[in-house]
Write a structure and sequence with these properties.
single chain; 419 residues; alpha/beta; nine-stranded mixed sheet; eight-stranded parallel beta barrel; 12 helices; 18 strands; 28% helix; globular; binds ligand LLP; De-COase2_CS
């Protein structure tokens, strides 16, 4: 669990921009990118944190980007990523669109900007072939097994809607050939927050898929290991050994290269790993109260901002900052938000069980800092209870930049008025 910022800086930002506030640290993101430099291509799964300024930072560091919606393609373009297909394994496309379904507007956008499509269904291949001969495609394969920090983030196996089922590979290749599409590569993403014990199995499955692709008479330029790398949300959680991780994939790539008879690019597609630890969410304590044996600390930020605890029972570290810098003795506290819903609790386990947490005593006016919220924090926010989206700030070399202003209620109402 980490918080890259000093209390003084967080108080300054809270005073200047108000709370709730998302704060990101550029140096942490650069550090994580550097840890993955052995991969030919690091492709940021922007769903984890899609602010245009974060995307620009990624681009400046040589990171490519994955988009999973038309909106994410347009964000990538706004951040300066170049549209167009790859010109080989060593010139990968800047933007790849990954999905299992594609609506008409998205189809038109991938065609207009020549964005390679990482297809998770054969229907997508047919739809693309009907309008864009020569389009570059990846095949996202579901290898028949998966793993995730929650069932909701496991993207492999027969219960997952994601990817083309492994036994359908040849059918997908036939659709590519018949449709005049160009196979760029094979992709596998078995889930988010994966247990690395599965890695050997995933790499082995990829080599077999390459073998079958080659046997079916298709060439390819690259393979993608997907994302899924975990981060230590709790003290004592394991941190990933990126050298070992790369080593296993590199070995798989070499086996695949000996099958196809030429070099293959190796892509990694992390979201969480690159940004989670760079971010905190700031809230202000607005009330405290007791209910039977529980002590509640109520803050001005809820699951409309950070959904992970309510959605998955996810753990996020937290700390209480007092303006005078003193730390009160710890107290078991249930930390909850302002929403009109019982599940709006940050300290809960899977299934919504409330879990009081030992935290420094908190009083009205104190700051609550929620750790490791750089991934799947802001990007999963909603306007529930007609609460405007919070502001975002990026700190780089001690300088803070507002990278998203706070939404206003008037902006929300304007969507519905004067139609
Ligand atoms: N590639 C594909 C095709 C994906 O579906 C995802 C995540 C990633 C890459 C990036 O996975 P990562 O490296 O971030 O684990 N909202 C959940 C996570 C859902 C992830 C969905 N797909 C959470 O808050 O944990």
């Amino acid at each position: 669990m980490s918080n890259p910022f000093s209390p003084a800086l967080l108080w300054n930002l809270a005073d200047q921009y108000g709370t709730p506030l998302w704060v990101y640290d550029a140096a942490t993101i650069r550090e994580r990118i550097a840890q993955l430099q052995a991969f030919d291509t690091v492709r940021f799964a922007q769903k984890a944190c899609s602010n245009i300024h974060i995307l620009k930072l990624m681009r400046e560091q040589g990171v490519k980007v994955d988009a999973v919606s038309r909106g994410e393609i347009l964000r990538a373009l706004a951040a300066g990523f170049t549209p167009g297909f790859a010109s080989g394994a060593h010139e990968p496309a800047d933007i790849v669109f990954t999905a299992d379904v594609m609506d008409e507007a998205t189809l038109a956008t991938v065609v207009e900007h020549q964005v390679p499509v990482n297809a998770g269904s054969i229907d997508m291949l047919h739809q693309l072939a009907a309008v864009s001969k020569g389009h570059h495609v990846w095949l996202r394969i579901n290898p028949g097994f998966g793993h995730g920090h929650s069932n909701k983030t496991n993207t492999g196996g027969e219960h997952s809607k994601h990817g083309i089922w492994h036994s359908e590979l040849e059918a997908a290749l036939t659709a590519i050939k018949a449709g005049g599409l160009v196979l760029a590569g094979l992709h596998m993403h078995i889930g988010s927050g994966v247990d690395y014990g599965h890695l050997q199995e995933v790499c082995g499955a990829m080599v077999k898929l390459v073998e079958r692709t080659h046997a079916a008479g298709h060439d390819l330029h690259a393979i993608s290991a997907g994302g899924g790398l975990s981060i230590p949300y709790r003290d004592g959680d394991a941190t990933i050994d990126t050298t070992h991780y790369h080593g296993l994939w590199h070995a798989a790539r070499q086996q695949a290269e000996s099958i196809v008879g030429h070099k293959l690019g190796l892509e990694l597609e992390p979201g969480r790993f690159l940004v989670a630890e760079s971010g905190v969410l700031l809230g202000t304590v607005r009330a405290t109260k007791n209910a039977g044996s529980n002590h509640f600390v109520l803050v001005d930020t809820g699951f409309n901002e950070l959904m992970r605890p309510s959605m998955y029972g996810s753990y996020h570290g937290m700390e209480v900052l007092r303006r005078d810098g003193l730390q009160l003795p710890t107290q078991d506290s249930v930390v909850a938000g302002p929403l009109c819903e019982s599940g709006d609790v940050f300290t809960q386990g899977d299934g919504g069980v409330v879990l009081p947490r030992a935290l420094a005593g908190a009083n009205v006016g104190d700051l609550l800092v929620i750790h490791d919220t750089g991934a799947y924090g802001s990007s999963m926010s909603s306007n529930y209870n007609t609460r405007p989206l919070a502001a975002e700030v990026l700190v780089d070399s001690g300088k803070a930049q507002l990278i998203r202003r706070r939404q206003t209620v008037d902006e929300l109402l304007a969507l519905e008025m004067g139609l």
